[in-house]
Inverse folding.
């Protein structure tokens, strides 16, 4: 068997199986060693192949596609530091449970650790941050090895998809010459033409006895709350809403729980807790004796502190991914069960409803807090808090809101409240980095009707290069850059009290005009001067295509003062309310 | 002992020791968890602190400083994907033997793998690509722990510096609150104020018997060649030149051997081998029976093939770093000895000189090849080969030429020839990636009189963000962008014969105008129209400060044709010469 035939048959078998597992999108970065895989992938009629020259952005782009399409995505690069550039997105995929099939080309064994060019040690390159690593066999065309290639592929996709989803890494040693033979019928196979092995992934669930015991602990509890962080489990929104109604428990809904937007019942959904849980009187008034928590840890620090302060409460953490998401060691019961199954099944065991008074207290404080948010809406200047407060109104129906880390996600948490619109909120909250945000959003926008990215200037700058994908592939995206010329979040941290070196180490103003870069990427750029202009821009935005950047200039000091003044005002009103009406 | 006192004393002891080891430059990326280290570093009067918001660029920036200053550099970032962004530069540092002290802040043990924000598994984060990893103790102010912090610091710098140099990784778990107490006298210490432990690193050397045996194998050898790849060993240029004279061996000098430029004796230095070793007649005419090789593998593929074809020759590989740089398994003797010590000592054992005829043949062919390079100089159009051919003349005395990977380093190899100017040539040739090139060059420019970076458009784009450092710190750099709108090197590879999908997968034109981005970074941008303009620009360039970008538009197809036509022409002349004069 000649080299080219072996190479072609092996790679084609792998690519064919990749498509048969259901993968449609592949992100390829150009390189020499990866030539056979790239050329064969480009031949497959069912593969959407995206080419991205910067591997860091490429991997985040793949992550975004996987997040929005809810399907695994394969990413392919050549040997050497190219593969190392994938690392940040792989770490994010690992912690945010997103399935990625990472394919790296490598030098064959005889060219490793002997000073050959572009040869680095790629064995277990990503350490514990992938669910599975395979050093692939060299290409051969024997039946055994073709079956091996197909099985490893099916298995890799299954492992990546299996809950908790995550990245897997397959490393392909490939010998020169690297050009495959594309003249043959690449993707035809006689053996198991519909896929070598179909993997039936199961969901975790506890048994009836365990459900009965859990229900027994909840029955008759009066002061219970449900906390929902970032969660993507199918059917969860309706299931948890029904459970909360049955229990008369409030749901503290993180913006990434997808519970704040949509047409589902929002009777029990509390959305302003990040504001009112900063007030001591509210916290005393609302003490729970049982907590049921779903999803990742919520964004709100106020909520985290509140939960820690109530460490005596029974604390149920439900995780269908079998993780251990409990940074404050609060859980009394760690329940490894699919969240939708948990809600739906538990419901059948609930016998006694709590009285509505505790729920009523939560709803009263929540309502009071929201009434005072009008002070933000009435502010005249362009401000960060008002922007996030008004966002829900300004976005078109069916929009996806992708939120940058640091300040924007916190402001979304504080100010983006319950609404009946169909708006999906996304963010990179696995490791909460500011890196790769533009690329993740661009990838997500391929599977979203209309995507709005809101992010700070440092986050935008960190992945500015990612915009090349939008330029080359005519991707539509609306980007709202909240430009406070530096790291706005640090103004909220204790180091802000130490003026010396603060701007050098934390403020880090870049003093750049993004307009130039946007022009390079053929995008539209608008510097937003006032609310009317923003409103108008957002109104027209659904019709414009390509890259649309709306820049809002804000001021870090003024922003800090505004947030503090708002919290002070609301806090006062809450204290009056708690002490007056309810003592 | 209160928390802040422990934190401050521990971190200050570490930073103090860092300075005492000789480190002067530290690259810091902003973050919260790294606050105590950053704030304490900023207080030290002897630390040059560079702040860089993009950790990928930051690490390459540190790498560039370390390469040019020949001193270890510390880089500091916060926890999470920030640290993952360091990976590409760490891999490059590992393979190019550059000392980096990688300092990452981390969550303390109780906040790991429990869903805490920005907490990822940082234990052995960079796998085998660092020489040493230490999970640091939590801050304490006991004598033992202060001594521990100082010892680990001294040891880390020593290990990074020890041949072969490379990166080390220290991971610091840090608890909140993170602000240190800067009011105390941070850097005063009573115990061993001049440094806790000074490490005396030794060089590898073989003993006299081994030298005698090696000399015996060389004495009387007529057809010997010396091959020098990328090498930085002190005193090597003069030592190897003397050895070559004593042996009458030609030196095939890679552009990164630093042997082509300078005022040393260039009598035996062969610089045009990448061209003439493509000709079969020349290769038959110049067959060696002994090869002495120093440094990394040379850039030239023609040379690599030539060495493989002469696998029967005795092949000595000398490596002061004790590595195994021999991708073709050619070495008969692997000699772990400092290269300068090797040349100088071996010289004293050399008894009989080879006749000059073999050396003469190499010099004749080399001269003939170079005569035909005038055809390149006489071409009218702006072309890639001519640019590199004329570079040596155009650069000011004392300049550093930093060369991008893919085409530019190969063109430098082919066309940047012997000259008497003092020009240092640098490149990232550990893993040969195109990533981080701008940042490495910017870092290097801090310790260079006048730095010229020549690179392709994809390489420039990959690290365009790196220019922010030049803008913020007013770094002077001259950048010549050879813009052939895509991956020029792929036109030289076999996949170029397959037109279908070639532009999609390999050509990858970006179609962008860099001028916009350069304006964003406050740089000067010149589109070079002809040779006169380039000459004039280069002449005036030594006086201009800041970012200066000179863009030369070329065409990938024309470039391929020009290279091929040149090689064809020279090859013909060489064959005539060998067959005519010398048969």
């Amino acid at each position: 068997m000649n080299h080219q035939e072996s190479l072609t048959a092996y790679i084609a078998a792998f690519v064919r199986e990749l498509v048969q597992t259901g993968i449609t999108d592949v992100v390829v970065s150009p390189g020499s060693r990866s030539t056979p895989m790239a050329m064969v992938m480009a031949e497959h009629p069912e593969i959407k192949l995206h080419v991205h020259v910067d591997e860091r952005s490429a991997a985040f782009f793949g992550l975004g596609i996987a997040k929005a399409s809810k399907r695994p995505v394969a990413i392919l690069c050549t040997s050497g530091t190219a593969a190392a550039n994938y690392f940040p997105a792989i770490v994010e995929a690992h912690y945010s449970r997103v399935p990625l099939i990472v394919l790296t080309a490598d030098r064959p064994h005889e060219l490793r650790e002997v000073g050959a060019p572009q040869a680095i040690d790629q064995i277990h390159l990503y350490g514990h941050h992938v669910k599975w690593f395979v050093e692939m066999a060299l290409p051969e065309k024997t039946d055994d090895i073709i079956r091996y290639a197909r099985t490893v592929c099916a298995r890799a996709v299954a492992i990546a998809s299996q809950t908790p989803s995550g990245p897997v890494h397959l490393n392909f040693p490939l010998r020169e010459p690297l050009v495959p033979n594309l003249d043959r019928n690449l993707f035809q196979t006689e053996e198991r033409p519909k896929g070598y092995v179909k993997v039936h992934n199961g969901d975790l669930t506890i048994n009836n006895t365990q459900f009965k015991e859990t229900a027994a602990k909840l029955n008759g509890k009066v002061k219970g709350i449900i906390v929902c962080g970032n969660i993507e489990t199918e059917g969860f929104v309706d299931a948890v809403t029904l459970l909360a109604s049955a229990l008369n428990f409030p749901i503290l809904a993180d913006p990434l729980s997808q519970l704040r937007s949509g047409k589902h019942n929002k009777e029990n959904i509390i959305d302003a807790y990040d504001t009112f849980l900063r007030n001591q009187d509210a916290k005393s008034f609302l003490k729970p004796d049982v907590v049921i928590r779903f999803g990742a840890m919520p964004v709100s620090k106020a909520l985290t502190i509140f939960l820690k302060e109530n460490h005596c409460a029974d604390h149920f953490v439900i995780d269908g991914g079998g993780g251990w998401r409990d940074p404050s060691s609060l859980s009394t019961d760690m329940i490894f069960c699919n969240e939708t199954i948990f809600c739906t099944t538990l419901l059948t065991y609930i016998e006694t409803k709590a009285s509505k008074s505790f729920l009523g207290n939560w709803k009263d404080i929540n309502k009071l807090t929201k009434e005072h948010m009008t002070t933000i809406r009435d502010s005249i200047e362009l401000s960060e808090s008002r922007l996030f407060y008004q966002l829900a109104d300004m976005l078109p129906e069916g929009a996806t809101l992708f939120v940058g880390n640091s300040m924007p996600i916190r402001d979304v948490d504080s100010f983006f409240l319950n609404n009946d619109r169909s708006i999906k909120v996304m963010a990179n909250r696995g490791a909460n980095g500011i890196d790769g945000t533009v690329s993740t959003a661009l990838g997500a926008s391929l599977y979203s009707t209309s995507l709005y990215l809101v992010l700070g200037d440092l986050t935008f700058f960190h992945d500015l290069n990612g915009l090349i994908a939008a330029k080359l592939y005519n991707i539509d995206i609306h980007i709202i850059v909240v430009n406070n010329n530096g790291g706005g979040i640090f103004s909220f941290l204790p180091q802000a009290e130490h003026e010396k070196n603060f701007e050098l180490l934390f403020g880090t103003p870049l003093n750049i005009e993004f307009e130039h870069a946007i022009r390079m990427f053929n995008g539209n750029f608008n510097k937003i001067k006032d609310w009317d202009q923003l409103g108008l821009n957002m109104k027209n935005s659904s019709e414009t295509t390509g890259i649309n950047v709306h820049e809002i200039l804000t001021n870090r000091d003024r922003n800090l003062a505004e947030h503090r003044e708002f919290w002070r005002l609301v806090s006062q009103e809450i204290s009056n309310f708690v002490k007056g009406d309810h003592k």
Remarks:
- Chain A touches chain B through 93 residues (CB under 8 Å).
- The mean pLDDT of chain A is 95.
- Chain A has three domains: 3-173, 208-366, 373-565.
